[in-house]
Amino acid sequence: MKQSPIPLSLATGSSQYHRPTFENYDRNVSGNWTNWGYGPEFNLAHPPNDYTGLPSVSWGDETAYLLTWHIHAPADHPVDGDSSRAELHLVHVKADGDYVAVFGIRIDPGTTAADDNPFFAQLPQPIPFVTTPGISPEEDPPGIEVVQDVQMDIGLALDSVDRFDEFWTYRGGLTSPPCAEGLRWFVAQKVSVTSTDQMREILGACTFSARSAQPVWLHGVNEQ
Fold first, then answer.
1. Ramachandran region of residue 120, left (φ > 0), alpha (ψ -120 to 50) or beta?
2. What is the predicted pLDDT for the residue at 144?
3. Please, which pLDDT band fits residue 137 given cuts at 50, 70 and 90?
4. Pairing of the two strands 192-194 and 147-153
5. pTM score
6. How large is the average pLDDT for residues 129-158?
7. Residue 221 vs residues 5, 14, 47, 122: alpha-carbon distances, Å
8. What is each CA distance from 195 to 108, 125, 200, 202, 204, in whole angstroms?
């Protein structure tokens, strides 16, 4: 089994394989702003069953399209035994809509005087988590607020970690139910830094959602 997340280490070094190339990220995209029951979430707008107009990323012979992003708190992936305050997951699908890759960005506050992170500075006010977590916003359950037609530049999130210039990659799965396997993970080695106030705002909209680190077995960390 190749479950996620797994513990990572800087001693492993940065991957020399599966280097990602991002396309169409540097523009405003529209979507719905909500809370997935555990933290902020943004679902990109697209025509029904057509994902190819969304921001894309390629590595090797694979191309994937950004469907949604959400935040876990604390971070799912511990590095050398330490976990960041939060982790942003950029979830990608194939052209047919099947999940294929997740790009993880760990998030921590800087010093008291740290500047605002441009990616988080552009976001609307976070929607608080609800008391019945784990229900998808697509089901439109009572009590989950959805703000329509929000625009944001997701390329700013990539900029905050040097566009995954240094990263770990491995074969794994989703960290939320159904925890389906068969995905490729990319986790940036650089941490995205926020101001103290921004981190307070992020965590104020989150409840605990980090899955325990899973045993490393056949994950092929940084392998071709």
1. alpha
2. 62
3. very low
4. unpaired
5. 0.92
6. 70
7. 12, 10, 35, 34
8. 9, 15, 9, 11, 14
